[in-house]
Amino acid sequence: MTNNQQKTRWQKLWAWLKKPLIVGIPIGVFVLVLGLATVQGSLVLSSTNEFCFSCHLKMDTIVQEYKASSHYGDGSNIAATCADCHVPHPYFEMLQVKIAATADIYHMMVGTITKENFEEHRPALAETVWRDMQANDSANCRHCHQGDNFDLSKQPQRARLNHQQIAARGETCVDCHQGLTHKRIVIE
């Protein structure tokens, strides 16, 4: 086989490969964009109070406690959503929490956690949330409570002094504010 014949074979092979690429690349890009949009849409949808309430309203008293709290909002202040407190704001941390949360759906579907036994499981579930908040120095609290939303000069003296000393004591928001939005659970 001559060099020319070999070159012609490669040219034919490349011409054959180019056709699917010309069509395949736009289709691949479309599928990728559609997949990313679906993931993003799912993240947004699953971060709404309505999504959270769809299970919790049927399961427990958490929604009622939240609605009675200052975080729910009374029309004069900005409400913090369930996701504002329970879902990290950085994208990949959010994905990790959303994937881990599918375990909750599993336990509800198989009946491990039911309306009848939720309060039995609640202390362990709350402990997990508090431990996570302590480990990340209450990052979700600090996401909103900063700048004008956390002006120490506008706080009563005792609160201002406690907030100024929180780091020196090795504490974070939930060390003092457990029970602010949901009732305080005593772990036995």
Ordered list of secondary-structure elements with their pairings:
Elements: H1 3-45, H2 49-59, H3 62-67, H4 82-86, H5 91-110, H6 118-135, H7 139-144, H8 157-165, H9 173-177
Low-confidence stretches: none
Determine the number of helices (DSSP H or I, runs of at least 4 residues): 9
Q: What is the CATH architecture descriptor? A: Orthogonal Bundle
CATH class term: Mainly Alpha
Strand content: under 5%
CATH fold-level assignment: Multiheme cytochrome fold
Q: Tell me, briefly, the overall form.
A: elongated
Write down the Rg: 26 Å
First-last Cα distance: 84 Å
Q: What sequence of helices (H) and strands (E) makes up the elements? A: HHHHHHHHH
Q: Please bin the fraction of helical residues.
A: 55-70%
**How is the biggest beta sheet arranged?**
none
Mean pLDDT, to the nearest integer, reads 85
Count the E strands: 0
